[in-house]
Amino acid sequence: MCGIVGYIGHRDAYPVILKGLQRLEYRGYDSAGIALYDGSEIKLSKTKGKVADLEAKVSEQINPVGSLGIGHTRWATHGVPNDVNSHPHFSNSGDLVIIHNGIIENYATLKEELIKRGYKFSSDTDTEVLVNLIEDIQKNSDLKLGKAVQVALNQVVGAYAIAVFDIKKPNEIVVARLGSPLAIGVGENEFFIASDASPFIEYTNNAVYLEDEEMAVIRLHKPLNVRNIKDDRIVSPYVQELKINLEQIEKGGYDHFMLKEIFEQPNAIKDTYRGRLLIDEGIIKMAGVEDNMGKFLNANRIIIIACGTSWHAGLVAEYIIEDLVRIPVEVEYASEFRYRNPVINENDVVIAISQSGETADTLAAIKLAKEKGAFVFGVCNVVGSSISRETHAGAYTHAGPEIGVASTKAFTTQITVLTLIALRLAKAKGTMSNTDFRRHLVELETIPEKVAATLKSDALAKEIAAIYKDAKNFLYLGRGFNFPVALEGALKLKEISYIHAEGYPAAEMKHGPIALIDENMPIAVIATKYGHYEKVVSNIQEIKSRKGKIIAVVTKGDTQVRDIADHVIEVPETLELLSPLLTTIPLQLLSYHIAVMLDRNVDQPRNLAKSVTVE
Asked: Is position 610 annotated as part of the catalytic site?
């Protein structure tokens, strides 16, 4: 959500920033802008629309030269998407330039006070208030920019990641963060600034990730000066070696990142259990679990907190953990958990799930759980992310960068990690036999090749998509372990095709949704061999008697559902609790092809952001 890019060094800043903004498009945005300083004046260009629109406008408006610059993609909060509200923003004097992700909650009060002091505002944004607050402090206290930023940030309430520079100090950029990610790429006599590492990975593999309430003064030919915003304590920056590479964040010949990431799932799942699932030794080895085994086994309950697709992965985990480990599990929307005064104590274990590790609601829920004394375990994909630092322990999914806004491989790798945790706990607790444990390990190891086999249904999914692309509504039905897959299938369709879709437990159809069924209603039903199969067959028959169109996901070799359904997509046979790793694949493909046929922006669907870092 929003994207920040900045550069100071010996290169031309414009191509670095433009390419960086393109790399951050996946975060979701509605406008873009750039400011460059050539040593004598600031060159500014910004526009509503895409980065491509900005590139065209730059070529018309300015000569994009200068070795210092900042760029931004904005997802509107305060003020509608338009050219004026786009970032960067100037202070009244024109000396200070800022870009900002996040929300300044007390901006209205600050703005009113600044107006009384003679400041004028051209935009509706909270960001313009912040840059003028910094200028006011600097002007009235004769402070250097870094100190003025620090004083200003101690007066604001909200979340932010900012980069600001002063034309009077052309070799310096000040950055800070609270609740919104910010990375600093460290090169040789050059620095890069970005919301994540993807904009600068081709230039350096060294990065510093600022912690909450930290700021840095970045100066050429000098080491980073990092301080705590609240107490002015000097912080020694930890320079981290990046593990991603340029190839991972390119499309690799696929039309869209989403399709690439769907087809990456066999390797992503394998990478997730590599080094953890040790078949030859017949064990699961996970340091975060091993080191905290007592916390898990003595827990009164496990509470899973997440949002969106991660919440659906948590629902699958609820079924798996309760079935195998016999510990009660509750799955909570992080956005609701943090506001409803939950009953939680030191005997509870909280598992927080997030692809990005930066989800604002999940981070806030983690902090609340820790305040209540709970042990918090994180499951996320991005190394060095806020959630990985905020939790007591955790496990990475190792899915690799996920650029498409609609999560695919994040979902299956999250389920993989959560399944590994459940199996390890069940073994330690003695709630499954050695034979059963071994059988599950062997089967889990085969899942990547079975996912690869399921991906061969791509052409069939495309054929079905062509038939139903103009449908106005969809239903998705599943039972047991596959009920959350129905929810996830519906979410994928909504996210990228903008078709209304709902997921339900199949048995709940009779309690309302059946009223919607007619000859124009496509219903995707997960009807695999295990998990109340006969009950699901009965549900399908009820739909057919009302002329509904059935798209069934079935176990390979199924004949009973094939005789009833309008369309059948087969998946290989597997254990019931592992079936979500396979049944979700055809639903991802179906959604993808429908969206492409409707000419939707698959990787950047409207109004959505990859990482929701504001409330």
From this structure: yes
